[in-house]
Amino acid sequence: RLGNEKYKTKIELRTLAPKWLEQFDFHLFEDQSQVLEITVLDKDVRSKDDFMGKCNIDLREYEREVTHQIWAPLEKDAGSLFLLLTISGTTGAETITDLVSQNEEPQEIESISNKYKITRSFHNMKDIGYLRVKVFRAQGLVSADIGGKSDPFCVLELVNARLQTQTEYKTLTPTWNKIFTFNVKDIHSVLEVTVYDEDRDHKVEFLGKISIPLMKIRFGEKKWYALKDKKLRLRAKGNNPEILLECSLHWNVIRAAVRTFNPKEEKYMQIEQKFKRQVFIRNVNRLKAVIMDFIEIGKFIKSCWEWEAPLRSVVAFVIFMIITYCFEIYMLPIVLLLVFLRNYIVYSLVGSLMHRDEEADFSGDEDDLDDEDKHSKKDRPSIEDDKSAPPLSPLLEEKKSLKERLQAIQDVTAMVQNAIGFIASLCESCKNTFNFTVPFLSWLLILALIIGTLILYYIPVRYLVMLWGINKFTRKLIRPHAIVNNEVLDFLSRVPDDEEIRDYHELRLAPAVDDRRREGGHQRKKKIN
To answer: Record's superkingdom (predicted)?
Structure first.
């Protein structure tokens, strides 16, 4: 509760460590209470809900335009709550109203650049970079109100950091002129920019969205982006909706490389994918495509054994005997380097081996979109509205039991669906690593393979295995709070799979009837070294 606004979460059954993963937007006024009250209740269908704990958060103690991760202890040691708190979208003194004509101080830019120089790589290994985003304006938005207008505001998310602009009322061409800054913890994160329409009943309506990988940002580029639909496949509704942004990213390559082999930051507001027929079929097809590649390799090897092409079989036999006779363990990384070399030659001759992302029609049920929209909020009753409920009849209890069984079946099918998707994603990430989809990651792995080759050449394998065992057995003793991780999986988690590549694909800007609409569009600022 904040002032007169009150929201209620869904019920988490049979657990002492609930995860609600819900978002509530409150309106903050200077003349009202600045204390956020949070109450935890135990749902009781036969009687009054039981009080479990309460905590108060004074919003005046927290900085504006920053996402805070808070562990809030409940009164009388009744547990604690973890929440992400952001005070954003403020108007008045905090809003930059003349951003277009604002001149940045060269000394400030140089100071930030010096902070991330190679020579200062080991000063603060967790500080990967600094992102500045200027949100200028949007155009061509769809009308969401009865009067043919919308009340748009823009939300920027970088993993768990979430900031938003003020709302511009009754317009389809909002001008926000606001600047945001983010501390970058992982250079492989993705900036999500979403435009919503604000309604008076505290609901919001989706207007458009884009996803921008930080690795694709060009320093100081002022650029129009075509807004997409919720699934990030097609153009959003409206008159070719677009948004004008300028992004500037300072980062340290050494810190970013080290961070790549550590666990990826978990996004707390990411709800687990439920079972959907379309998603299940798509994941099966993705895995099938990977399996078919291995089947083709198997067919090729079998054709050599069966002497279907005698010349090819002779060449394969000679190569096999030479490799078997000369093989050493340090040659394993060299084999992978040869794959990189082959793909790099193709990459240089014909361009990127990334998928050609067409604006294909990915059909799906309309109701799938609503489940994925974090911001769509139904009217939630107040806490007092649901304090008591009549006892359940035996018939209702039987229906509830049947519903729980069906839910259990759905949970199992969802687990299978997501497991297939994870395996397919892992295989696609491996393929995209060798395809130079993200050149930084491909070159980083090439460097690691070269170092690995030298280590295997000079150091016997038994000593390397001993070092590996010592590290595993002593990790808990030396670093008791260290997170257990797998460096290979951590690396692959940064490589986008085919679905993510489609999400990040930029749609072509529609030819404007009046080119003056994009006046001041593509401009580059010179980076100050």
So the answer is: Eukaryota
